[in-house]
């Protein structure tokens, strides 16, 4: 009669078979617990990715040196602003002083595309402290004139809840949306983003801030072009800069 073999009580009957390790070859088991589980792309998008910490000397996108923009354009005026005036103008596009310093030091820009590419890269490189500083100088997006009274009341309530929840202004870029759609877009966005976790929303706010900075830079160049046509003047006012004008 065959001898019976007792099974260890601590091991279930249907435990998957382990990969046997020979004395000469070690095969990695697919059941090893010391390998961290793979995370899906969806998981990564729900977590805040800390902005890269890059020193002020880091390189922004390479510029094509040579003839700069045509004389009399807003970009030409921007390129020739005194450093302190340029930094002031740039902090009205994005409230991070480090961002503004990098953008001003990288002049001259050969064209608007190079300026906007540098603005994006500088925004991606902002530290958490830079982002906090920039968000602290923002005002929550507002509805334009003529918005329905009910929409204004709804936005005021949602905006107060947002600022209480996340500790900073509600930032959104509505470029590309027709004016008649902006009321619905703004209300829908703030209600949707109120459901986010703090880290997730901070990451989204950083990206919206980057796009808002691009929009403000474009408007700044247009205003500088107008000012140059009226006569050279470096004493620009906050109205010329468009100090944190409501984006909605």
Q: What do these coordinates show?
A:
α7 packs parallel to α8. The chain has 248 residues and is mostly helical. It starts with 40 loop residues before the first helix and ends in a 7-residue tail after the last helix. The protein is globular. It is built from ten helices and no strands. The N terminus and C terminus are likely disordered.
Topology:
Elements: H1 41-45, H2 74-79, H3 83-91, H4 97-105, H5 112-124, H6 128-136, H7 149-166, H8 182-193, H9 198-230, H10 238-241
Helix pairs in contact: 3-4, 5-9, 7-8
Structural class: mainly alpha
Give the N-to-C terminal Cα separation. Answer: 87 Å
Please estimate the helix content: 40-55%
What Rg is obtained from the alpha carbons, in whole angstroms? Answer: 27 Å
Tell me which oligomeric state these chains represent.
Answer: single chain
Largest sheet, if any?
A: none
Low-confidence segments, given as residue ranges, are 1-57, 242-248
Strand residues, percent:
under 5%
Order of helices and strands: HHHHHHHHHH
The overall strand count is 0
Total count of helical runs of at least 4 residues: 10
């Amino acid at each position: 009669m065959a001898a019976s073999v007792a099974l260890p009580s601590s091991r279930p009957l249907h435990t998957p078979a382990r990969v046997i390790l020979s004395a000469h070859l070690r095969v990695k088991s697919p059941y090893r617990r010391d390998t961290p589980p793979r995370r899906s792309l969806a998981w990564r998008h729900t977590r805040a990715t800390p902005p890269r910490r890059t020193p002020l000397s880091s390189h922004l996108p390479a510029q094509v040196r040579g003839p700069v923009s045509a004389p009399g354009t807003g970009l030409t005026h921007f390129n020739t602003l005194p450093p302190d005036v340029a930094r002031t103008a740039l902090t009205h596009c994005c409230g991070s002083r480090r961002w503004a310093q990098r953008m001003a030091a990288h002049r001259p820009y050969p064209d608007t595309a190079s300026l906007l590419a540098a603005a994006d890269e500088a925004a991606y490189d902002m530290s958490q402290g830079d982002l906090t500083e920039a968000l602290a100088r923002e005002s929550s997006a507002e509805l334009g004139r003529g918005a329905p009274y009910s929409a204004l009341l709804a936005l005021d309530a949602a905006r107060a809840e947002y600022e209480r929840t996340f500790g900073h202004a509600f930032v959104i870029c509505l470029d590309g949306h027709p004016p008649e759609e902006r009321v619905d877009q703004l209300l829908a966005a703030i209600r949707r983003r109120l459901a986010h976790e703090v880290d997730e929303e901070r990451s989204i706010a950083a990206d919206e801030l980057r796009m808002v900075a691009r929009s403000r830079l474009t408007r700044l160049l247009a205003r500088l072009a107008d000012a140059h046509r009226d006569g050279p003047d470096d004493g620009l006012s906050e109205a010329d800069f468009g100090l944190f004008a409501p984006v909605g």
